[in-house]
Amino acid sequence: MASIVPIPTESYNLGFIGAGKMAESIARGVVKSGVLPASQIRTAHLATARRTAFESFGAKVLSHNIEVVQESDVVIFSVKPQVVKDVILQLKPLLSEKQLLVSVVAGVKLKDLQEWAGHSRFIRVMPNTPAAVGVAASVISLGTAATKDDGELITNLFGAIGKVWTANEKLFDAITGLSGSGPAYIYLAIEALADGGVAAGLPRDLALGLASQTVLGAASMAVNVGKHPGQLKDDVASPGGTTIAGIHELEKSGFRGILMNAVAAAAKRSRELSQS
């Protein structure tokens, strides 16, 4: 096997196979953060709305995926799981180990991606939907021929839309259950907090605004302050106060166990889907 040629860190072309919302979020973040100029990003799509979305920030929109691959050093597959095999097989004659291939397709394993592409310079990434506002939680796993430099390049790329971790692919089902599905659990929590505010007499708009900002603030504290979440909770819960009364109700209802079960159930379902 020929030695892997490093991708130039600042002068490579980035191509997206699939121009959906996730691809758009990644591309916009990359441009906004200055990782790459829009002129070095390309995709292809037939739908006018998707073409317009990419053109709006200066990305190059081509007429066919073949052209995207021909013009790109790093190729990100961002298509639906049920079509990714056909898409990669169609493009396989054009794919070479001079290119770094990346998949953000949920539930599709590296061994299959590498087999379909005909080589293993592949990186799998699991981002989540907050990529749309630049605060994604993304996890990467390197294929067998992907180099340390490749990993650093993709870490830098996805760092444009949030935080990035590296993990063994065997953990991806659990990651799906936590960060992949997790935003939906938090949306439910925000809605429930707002409903509680309404039940206590707040106007709906005020309750929803307070609930959303409270979750945002609490998450920012957990990320930035350097304290364990349990300690942050203790800091709010003064003896005989309002917070500990509320926490008591949550504990009686099994709040923590319910969230743990949700993550475990989603991880189990991810395993089932990836084996089907």
UniProtKB/TrEMBL annotation:
<dbReference type="InterPro" id="IPR029036">
    <property type="entry name" value="P5CR_dimer"/>
</dbReference>
<comment type="similarity">
    <text>Belongs to the pyrroline-5-carboxylate reductase family.</text>
</comment>
<keyword id="KW-0641">Proline biosynthesis</keyword>
<dbReference type="InterPro" id="IPR036291">
    <property type="entry name" value="NAD(P)-bd_dom_sf"/>
</dbReference>
<dbReference type="Pfam" id="PF14748">
    <property type="entry name" value="P5CR_dimer"/>
</dbReference>
<feature type="domain" description="Pyrroline-5-carboxylate reductase catalytic N-terminal">
    <location>
        <begin position="14"/>
        <end position="107"/>
    </location>
</feature>
<keyword id="KW-0028">Amino-acid biosynthesis</keyword>
<dbReference type="InterPro" id="IPR008927">
    <property type="entry name" value="6-PGluconate_DH-like_C_sf"/>
</dbReference>
<dbReference type="Pfam" id="PF03807">
    <property type="entry name" value="F420_oxidored"/>
</dbReference>
<dbReference type="InterPro" id="IPR053790">
    <property type="entry name" value="P5CR-like_CS"/>
</dbReference>
<dbReference type="InterPro" id="IPR028939">
    <property type="entry name" value="P5C_Rdtase_cat_N"/>
</dbReference>
<feature type="domain" description="Pyrroline-5-carboxylate reductase dimerisation">
    <location>
        <begin position="169"/>
        <end position="273"/>
    </location>
</feature>
<comment type="pathway">
    <text>Amino-acid biosynthesis; L-proline biosynthesis; L-proline from L-glutamate 5-semialdehyde: step 1/1.</text>
</comment>
<protein>
    <recommendedName>
        <fullName>Pyrroline-5-carboxylate reductase</fullName>
        <ecNumber>1.5.1.2</ecNumber>
    </recommendedName>
</protein>
<dbReference type="InterPro" id="IPR000304">
    <property type="entry name" value="Pyrroline-COOH_reductase"/>
</dbReference>
<keyword id="KW-0521">NADP</keyword>
<keyword id="KW-0560">Oxidoreductase</keyword>
